[in-house]
Please model this.
Amino acid sequence: MLVALIGFSIRDRDSLSTPEKFLQDSIGWMQTVFHKPVSLVDNTIENIKDMFEVYEQNQVLKARLSEYKGVIQDNQRLESEIEELQNTLGKTEGLSDYSPIQATVIARSSDRWFEQMTINKGEEHGVEKDMAVMTSDGLVGKIKSAGAFHSTVQLLSGFDRSNKISSWVIREDKDEAFGLIEGYDDETGRLLLEGIKLDEELKSGDTVISSGLGGVFPSNLRIGTVEEVVNDQYGLTKTAYVEPFADFFDINHVMVVDRTAETVDTQTEAEGDET
Amino acid sequence: MSRYIIALICLFLLVMQGMAMSMLPAKLVYSDLLMTPHWIFIFLLIIAIFYDKDDTYHAVWYGLVFGLLIDVVYTGVLGVYMVTYTLVIYLVHGLNKWVHANFIAASLLAIIGVLLTDTILYVIYSFVQITSMTWGDYLLLRLLPTLAANMIFFILLYPLVKERVYFWSEEVKNA
Model:
């Protein structure tokens, strides 16, 4: 019976069974109820801690502010340019367009072998399986399963070969290099970006973003920076170790990213990524 | 009546288990050491020792139900916690016949229970390839921290609930 149950749950399921959804939601609601007062206390302590650092932070921020003004103008100019170009092409939806769904983390899997957490938004709010989840820092994971009002997020740190993200490495003077985020190195806490062509040269410090070619994630989601590049075990491709932008442990608020462009149905496309 | 209270406490612990992982300071919970809270298991262990008589198996049934709930809510792999909790609590229930119900014996049973539970979880999960840790790493990085964390919880919980549970047990017997 144990084997049957495990077998049932471990195979690639498209959605949870109804009783599972029901349980997930009921526990989710209870967690929300308890979450409110606990996070209140938590936040108050955090706020008091912050108050001591306000002065220093203010100095740094003031210095940065003038920099940003220039960046904003640049940004606006580029954006209008893109829009113009897209209009001339008759193309209205880019891969990078998405609408965010704000959510709060209400619990984490108590077993550390499962890098999962529960958020307080579900199918009723538009969350679907396989959507990208990010914090303000960068990508943190994807929706593993969606209940009616709560969903489970699979963190990048729990990714394996069945969860790939097609991504680009942004380089200063060359085109983007393509690669797939295929796993996570527990010991160093870095992501593995595999399948990079041998002749591509990567520097440490290059930024890794999602490419949007996998069919589900939008493009331009920030993932991390390249730290180290090695040849893979057969010497056919390169593997880069990527230091993620987001902190996978201290997550409170997340954004579920709903891609505007049509998503590829991963079932018909067996070789599609991010399945 | 006491049965419903026990179920409620278990439910509360289930919710808190996940909350604790997201609320406790990250440095403590997310160091290299993998600590897994088995709070429900600890509570059910106390129930098995002080509430159940030799011929009642309430704790075992609770283990079955709440093990399944943990599976659904926190891991998504059904049956693993369910079977493990049920089995180990049944064993503890059996062992309990041979020892006196006092603090020393109870903590001894708790140590054995947590060790056994976590090891069985590890064996099952490595069979289905959810974890690929080696035995050596597992012992150092997960089993010992988990044992320590849960024993702290046991020592905190024991004085809080022991008298109450014993009282409920008498109440059920006399009713």
Observations:
- The CA atoms of residues 21 and 30 of chain B lie 9 Å apart.
- Chain B has one domain: 2-23+33-174.
- The helical segments of chain B are 2-23, 26-29, 39-51, 58-75, 80-95, 103-127, 135-174.
- Chain B touches chain A through 39 residues (CB under 8 Å).
